[in-house]
């Protein structure tokens, strides 16, 4: 699950997954904007058959935040 989320984020950031770490900041390091982040959420939500509130999506700062949202949601 974690690797797939990193792959989705890397794809949106036009990076190779191996170049994306959990500590990368979505905006500052990967240069993603709000639309990119929403698109990431939509792809993951569709694949995981789940949904996340806008407030949670807006709170994401790092790749780890995204991963933790979906790993904790599926427990």
Question: How would you portray this structure in words?
Answer:
The chain is an all-alpha fold. It has 4 helices and no strands. The protein has helices spanning 2-13, 34-48, 54-59, 63-73. The protein is globular and about 25 Å long. The model has no long low-confidence stretch (mean pLDDT 95).
Which helices and strands appear, and what pairs or packs with what?
Elements: H1 2-13, H2 34-48, H3 54-59, H4 63-73
Helix pairs in contact: 1-2, 1-4
Query: Helical region count?
Result: 4
The structural class is mainly alpha
Q: Could you give the count of β-strands?
A: 0
Q: Segments where pLDDT lies below 50 for 5+ residues? A: none
What is the structure about, briefly put?
The chain is built from four helices and no strands.
Attribute tags:
mainly alpha; 4 helices; 75 residues
């Amino acid at each position: 699950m974690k690797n797939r989320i990193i792959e989705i984020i890397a794809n949106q950031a036009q990076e190779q997954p191996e170049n994306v770490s959990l500590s990368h900041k979505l905006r500052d390091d990967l240069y993603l904007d709000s639309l990119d982040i929403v698109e990431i959420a939509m792809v993951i939500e569709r694949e995981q058959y789940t949904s996340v509130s806008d407030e949670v999506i807006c709170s994401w700062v790092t790749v780890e935040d995204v991963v933790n949202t979906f790993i904790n949601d599926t427990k």
